[in-house]
Design goal:
- The complex is a heterodimer of chains A (317) and B (257).
- Chain A has 317 residues and is mainly alpha-helical.
- Chain A has a domain of 214 residues.
- Chain A has 14 helices and four strands.
- In chain A, strands 1-4 form a two-stranded antiparallel ribbon.
- Chain A is globular.
- The C terminus of chain A is likely disordered.
- Chain B has 257 residues and is α/β, with parallel strands linked by helices.
- Chain B folds into two domains: 165 residues, Rossmann fold, CATH 3.40.50; 81 residues, no CATH class.
- Chain B is built from eleven helices and ten strands.
- At the A-B interface, helix 7, helix 8 and helix 9 of A face helix 2, helix 3, helix 5 and helix 6 of B.
Chain lengths: 317, 257
């Protein structure tokens, strides 16, 4: 019963996603949804770490920034084609995340959190001060839009579909991973690391798989962002991005596939509606995080599941 | 020799928790380690499974040295343990928890997983089927869709064993599996351990319940203050003066004689 609903739901959602920019003419609204998609690329990866592996990383913006800067600089300084920018961004991120993973994955809990946060902070300082390369706080304007086989992605609608392709690919990869031995190993580490090791799971190996995958996704998002907005400055490493991601993830429902989607759409669209009180955004995000953590630890996804379950025989004894 | 422990020693600060401990286990045997609280039984388990590194001594399993290996590496050699305190994967269903225990049996490549190909689908089916088989064996199958944390205490202890069995070990270390159980539950646990053993698994057991220990052990190692004070078949150990002294005190022996 559940699975039939799920199937119907995902077909409707997919159809709506494809039809959306054809039905909606408002450019700005499309931009908002592209933004939600951009956040989803970040949050989906973060979900692998926070939701499945159970390690809170506050350094996710590090690889967002690495991806964005690598891609932007190659395009600006060498006029490299988009596919090369993207490949280089992924390559550099792969190397950096492996190196960084070697350090940070030896740590747990609060130590993991602090060190991961420092890494993003260090990169922010580098991006701000290495003016000859990054143009510092003035940023990098005029980044070329991506093009594939001579077809330049320029219009909002084009960007929307590019975003949709990336988002679908990521969702596919994640759902494959978490429904396999890799996902089970990660969840077993989240649930009980001691016991997971007892049945042969290497905390380091699966930490690394999740960490590198999440980082590559973040770099993908960064590259997309740089070429979409066509301007980049060190604020990309900003902590507010990190907090936004966490609010989206936790509110939507961590450790689920649908949760990050819900969180990203809600938290890009709702703040727009509350533009008049924009200065209250940060405190409100903080409050939402606290309320969600206390009253609905499974997030919106958990809430929806509970509503759907109501009236049925409870499975828990 | 299947498992040979030689001169195992570890101290924590000034306290020598295990000192010059040697014992052997032959394939298919059930060996019990008993002794008063603080004798070093659980520490011995931690040493064998790699959770603690001994100061000296060796642990050889099927001709391979285990000292220095991380717990997951020891597990990959075919040794799985349970814990004295209840230790499961709390927020997943019982069947999922057992599937997690089957990590070692799954050989899927990245591409198998990404493409969800035949091999992947077969392993997933097998994982589920084998999980259900183990749950049925332990009489837990009807609880397969329940979250692990909402099981009763007795069921939790069974789930721990189910997770351990799912990893298909050759040597199973059970740390007080019957702790906190009433006599009929303990008898049931004893039956389960015997049946596991009949299927060819060797068992190293730490247990305080003497009915269980005396009935199913091939051999008993008695520890006190980290040292082996006696070993032998149950009938010998039961009559040994050192054992009586360790458990009941010098005064008891004096009174008895």
């Amino acid at each position: 019963m559940r699975t039939r609903w799920q199937k119907a739901g995902s077909i409707i959602a997919a159809a709506a996603a494809v039809a959306f920019p054809l039905c909606v003419q408002d450019d700005y609204f499309i931009h908002l949804i592209i933004n939600a998609g951009f956040f989803y690329m970040l949050v989906a990866g973060l979900n692998l770490l926070v939701g499945y592996l159970g390690q809170l990383s506050l350094g996710h913006t590090a690889f967002l920034g690495v991806g964005a800067y690598t891609s932007a600089l190659l395009s600006l300084k060498f006029g490299a084609p988009y596919w090369l920018c993207l490949t280089a961004a992924q390559g550099l991120t792969l190397v950096l995340s492996l190196l960084f993973g070697l350090i940070v994955l030896r740590l747990r809990g609060p130590y993991f959190v602090i060190v991961s946060m420092c890494f993003a902070e260090v990169l922010a300082i580098v991006a701000t001060n290495w003016v000859s390369l990054t143009n510092g706080p003035m940023g990098l304007p005029g980044i070329e839009p991506p093009s594939f086989f001579g077809y330049a992605i320029v219009s909002r609608r084009d960007f929307y579909y590019l975003m949709l392709i990336i988002v679908c690919a990521m969702t596919y990869i994640i759902s494959r991973l978490v429904n396999s031995v890799v996902g089970r190993a990660a969840i077993s580490l989240r649930e009980n690391e001691e016991l997971a090791e007892t049945v042969g799971v290497s905390a380091f190996k699966f930490g690394m798989i999740m960490f590198v995958t999440a980082s590559l996704f973040a770099a993908m998002a960064g590259s997309f962002y740089a070429h979409y907005i066509s301007y980049l400055n060190p604020e990309i490493f900003g902590f507010i991005y990190m907090i936004t991601m966490l609010v989206m993830l936790v509110t939507g429902g961590k450790g689920t596939i649908v949760g990050p989607m819900l969180g990203c759409v809600i938290f890009t669209v709702v703040p727009e509606m509350l533009r008049g009180v924009a200065h209250l955004r940060d405190p409100v995000f903080g409050l939402v995080l606290i309320i969600v953590a206390i009253f609905m630890p499974q997030g919106l996804k958990g809430l929806i599941d509970r509503v759907l379950q109501r009236g049925k025989v409870p499975t828990e004894g | 020799m299947y498992l040979a422990v030689n001169d195992l020693t570890i101290s924590f600060g000034g306290l020598t928790a295990v000192e010059d401990l040697s014992f052997e286990l032959e394939k298919g045997q059930i060996i019990s380690i008993i002794g008063p609280n603080g004798a070093g039984k659980t520490t011995t388990f931690n040493l064998v499974t790699g959770f603690k590194k001994p100061d000296r001594g060796s642990i050889v399993f099927k001709g391979q040295e285990l000292v220095g290996l991380a717990p997951y590496k020891v597990a990959q050699k075919g040794i799985t343990r349970t814990f004295q305190k209840t230790n499961v994967f709390p927020n997943v269903t019982v069947l999922e928890a057992v599937a997690m225990g089957r990590y070692r049996q799954i050989q899927n490549s990245f591409w198998d997983i990404l493409l969800a190909n035949k091999k992947y689908q077969r392993t997933e089916r097998e994982t589920k089927a084998k999980g259900l088989e183990i749950l049925s064996f332990l009489d837990l199958a009807k609880r397969k869709d329940v979250r692990a944390k909402s099981l009763s205490y007795g069921e939790l202890r069974l789930l721990e064993i189910a997770i351990a069995l799912a990893s298909e070990p050759e040597l199973l270390l059970l740390d007080e599996p019957a702790a906190g159980m009433n006599p009929s539950e303990a008898a049931k646990m004893m039956g389960i351990i015997s049946r596991i053993n009949e299927q060819g698994l060797s068992v190293l057991l730490v247990e305080h319940n003497m009915d269980v220990v005396m009935n199913i052990s091939d051999h008993i190692v008695v520890l006190d203050h980290g040292r082996k004070i006696c070993q032998g078949p149950p009938s010998v150990v039961q009559e040994d003066e050192c054992v009586l002294e360790a458990y009941l005190g010098r005064g008891f022996l004096d009174a008895k004689n």
